[in-house]
Specification:
- The chain folds into two domains: about 25-190, Rossmann fold, CATH 3.40.50.1980; about 205-325, 3-Layer(aba) Sandwich (Rossmann fold), CATH 3.40.50.
- Helix content is about 35%, strand content about 20%.
- The protein contains eleven helices and 13 strands.
- It has helices spanning about 60-70, 90-95, 110-115, 140-145, 165-175, 180-200, 225-235, 260-265, 275-290, 295, 315-325, and strands spanning about 25-30, 40-45, 45-50, 55-60, 75-80, 120-125, 145-150, 210-215, 220-225, 235-240, 255, 270-275, 300-305.
- The strands form three sheets. Strands 8, 9, 10, 11, 12 and 13 form a six-stranded mixed sheet that branches.
- Helix 6 packs parallel to helix 11 (about 315-325) and helix 7 packs across helix 11 (about 315-325).
- The protein starts with about 25 loop residues before the first strand and ends with a helix.
């Protein structure tokens, strides 16, 4: 794919008082601020300063690509990564069809990312910046002149306690970064309206127990914490794996044996998939392994696109809606 030669350049208005946003940990500075830092956002304990709207943007996950396009950043993108982990919606895929793919199933290597000379890199978690894995670290990107933004729910200290509401912090932050505050406000208001509708629809629905699983071959993991677990809760499900269990002390998911899941006998099974083939393989595994489970017997097997479960994506709201329908 060819690298775009044209990027959309937008400049922030000078001499206008910039209001402090209501999002927790986010602020913009007034007109007296030097041009070197006309806006700031706090992210994962770091303060990011911006002298202008980013012009060379890299998204390290399809989940972040969706949000960036919604905030008008498509023309500024010079790279996208982990593209095979989940398909983009048709309209978004068309908008980024010419954006170079830097990696398909894992974060791009350090040299690959730095080669496109980004000035802003957006990721779902801090893992994408692990130097020990050969990825560009946040410090290395800073030295190269690029800011790195991690979805709020993907910050290391918040990974096991994240909620769907963290998405609204990300929308507000990125709206400031790209000078798209009005659009960000629209997205936040729409998201909250959709979540409220799910809650209202489920008010009189019978309670359902749910297990959220991830299947890769014959490896079985369960999820009991993080934004993934909050998505299930917002959909009205009662997770049979609780965040206070010791298996989730340091991470939001844990590998278990089939016997452990069978013993909890959930009414519904939620599972993330990377595409149609993964969906069919997971369904086959669940039906063959747990034929007597209530979820299988009553066919409450709910597939959700994997990217919709990552921190900091508009898909979080769609996942809540999908799961609510499935367990209803």
């Amino acid at each position: 794919m060819k690298i775009r030669t044209a990027v959309k350049i937008r400049t922030a208005a000078v001499g206008v008082l910039l209001l402090t946003t209501a999002a927790c940990g986010t602020s913009v500075q007034d007109a007296s601020t030097p041009a070197a830092a006309i806006a700031t956002v706090d992210n994962c304990g770091r303060t990011l300063e911006f002298g202008s709207v980013p012009e060379r943007v890299v998204s390290l996950s399809p989940s972040q690509t969706e949000l960036l396009v919604q905030l008008g950043a498509a023309d500024a993108m010079v790279g996208q990564a982990q593209t095979d982990t989940s398909p983009l919606s048709a309209d978004v895929a068309e908008r980024v069809a010419d954006v170079p793919v830097l990696s398909t199933d894992s974060p791009p290597g350090r040299e690959v990312l730095l080669e496109v000379a980004p000035d802003f890199v957006v990721a779902p978690t801090e893992y994408e910046f692990t130097a020990e894995q050969g990825f560009a670290s946040i410090d290395q990107l800073r030295q190269a002149g690029a800011n790195a933004y991690v979805a709020t729910g993907g910050c290391a200290e918040r990974r096991t306690t994240a909620t769907v509401d963290d998405l609204f912090t990300d929308i507000t932050d990125l709206g400031i970064v790209f000078d798209e505050r009005d659009r960000a406000t629209e997205l936040v208001e729409d998201g909250r309206r959709r979540l409220d509708a799910v809650a209202a629809d489920g008010a009189d629905r019978p309670a359902r127990t749910v297990a959220q699983v991830y299947v890769e071959g014959t490896s079985l993991s369960v999820i009991g914490a993080g934004v993934e677990a909050d998505i299930v809760a917002r959909a009205g499900g009662e997770n049979v794996f609780r965040p206070d269990e010791s298996m989730f002390d340091s991470f939001f998911s844990a590998t278990v044996g089939p016997e452990e899941l069978a013993a909890r006998n959930p009414d519904a099974l939620v599972f993330a998939v990377s595409g149609d083939a993964h969906r069919e393989a997971t369904l086959a595994y669940l039906r063959a392994t747990f034929p007597d489970m209530t979820a299988v017997q009553e066919n409450r097997l709910i597939a959700v696109p994997g990217a919709d479960m990552f921190p900091g994506t508009l898909g979080n709201i769609g996942a809540v809606e999908t799961i609510a329908r499935g367990i209803g």
